[in-house]
Design brief:
- By secondary structure, the chain is mostly helical.
- It has one domain.
- The protein is built from 17 helices and no strands.
- 45% of the residues are buried.
- The C terminus is likely disordered.
């Protein structure tokens, strides 16, 4: 099972690290390995959330997620996206942006590739932060049978009955960040980027929900949008509808795939920007972050095939709270310097806590089942 899910990642890791060694020697090899670990630690919660979407897609789309999707993640987000951002920011042609990137200039020096990408950070953080914030808000504002932090999730679900509350909260957050956190001259940029992040999420989530309803209105009408919910899927399974939900195809599967790619992009923003604190070499950066992205994808598929999310029911909750924390931290980085290790530790800590809570819940359930199964001792006559 391990080789089936991670064999490709192991092989490509060997290839990538070999290329890094040939390209820049032992130092480049070490930096690529550090970046891979950084990417995995920052995106573990991404894998958990991705799995809740992927388990409802057909095998064809799952394979597409590991082939075309990984190409988009590695080449598109870790290599092409920074070049596009720098090109647009500095009004450079693609060839000039590539030349500037290969010069490996100091990120602290004006005019270099790293410096220009850091200048674009407020817009990137606003877009990605608001996108992730919308995902988190849609989760916590929904009534769920299974609750992890019940003392907090219960009142949030209660106020979440107010229609479009997540949009209202996200809009308020955008205004606060734009006028309170944005650097001088960047207020309008942060405001527009945040609104675009919110619009993108609402559009993709809404289209996915629409086409799900078209495919099977009876089974999908109660599901909470494109990212679903494990207890809702379990309810559908009890009604005999899980086969259709798990084999999502057509337009609904396409928009779920698009949603996964946008989610991965939002998670990769802080990793790409943070990587410049380690290296300004775009080749080493692409290799290291790309290796990390491979393991995140493989971990997503592993969680689906093992049924881990159904066995450890609080994992999704932990991942969603980690996403909420990441969204807040990402928005805060518009003004504050927050080390990537802090972001990684917060996410891993929340997911670990949710995993341990799931184990305790399962043991208690097993204990109760065992007590119920034991024959009662008859009182002596």
């Amino acid at each position: 099972m391990l080789l089936r899910n991670f064999g490709g990642s192991f092989a490509l890791t060997a290839v990538g690290l070999t290329l890094a060694l040939l390209y820049g020697g032992p130092a480049a090899l070490a930096i690529a390995a550090i970046l891979a670990i950084l990417e995995i630690s920052l995106s573990f919660d991404n894998a958990v959330v991705n799995a809740t979407v992927l388990e409802r897609m057909s095998p064809f789309w799952q394979k597409l997620f590991l082939t075309v999707g990984i190409a988009i993640a590695v080449i598109g987000m870790r290599m092409v996206f920074p070049l596009i951002v720098v090109g647009v920011t500095a009004q450079l042609s693609p060839a000039e942006a590539i030349t500037l990137a290969l010069e490996k200039g100091d990120p602290a020096t004006p005019g270099t590739y790293g410096y220009l990408l850091n200048e674009a950070h407020p817009a990137i953080a606003a877009f990605g932060g608001v996108f992730l914030l919308m995902l988190f808000l849609d989760f916590v504002f929904e009534e769920r049978e299974i609750k992890w932090l019940s003392w907090l999730e219960r009142p949030l679900a209660r106020i979440g009955k107010l229609d479009q509350l997540s949009v209202v909260v996200a809009m308020v957050a955008v205004v606060i960040v734009a006028y309170g956190f944005a650097p001088p001259g960047k207020t309008a940029t942060v405001l527009v980027s945040g609104i675009l992040g919110m619009v993108t999420y609402v559009l993709v989530n809404g289209l996915g929900e629409l086409f799900e309803a078209d495919e099977d209105a009876d089974e999908v009408q109660n599901l909470p949008g494109i990212h679903g919910g494990l207890e809702r899927i379990e309810q559908a399974a009890n009604r005999g509808g899980i086969g259709r939900l798990a084999a999502k195809t057509g337009k609904a599967a396409f928009f779920s795939f698009l949603y996964l790619e946008l989610l991965d992009a939002s998670f990769s923003f802080d990793g790409v920007i943070g990587a410049f604190a380690i290296t300004s070499d775009p080749i080493i950066m692409a290799i290291g972050l790309g290796i990390g992205a491979l393991y995140v994808r493989s971990l997503t598929v592993y969680l689906v095939r093992q049924g881990t999310l159904r066995e450890y029911v609080y994992l999704e909750h932990g991942a969603q709270w980690a996403i909420g924390a990441l969204a807040v931290l990402l928005l805060c980085t518009i003004k504050l310097e927050i080390p990537e290790v802090v972001t990684g530790l917060v996410g891993v800590g929340l997911i670990t806590s949710a995993f341990l809570s799931s184990i305790i819940r399962n043991r208690r359930s097993s204990g109760r089942d065992g007590e119920d199964a034991e024959p009662r001792e008859l009182s002596p006559v």
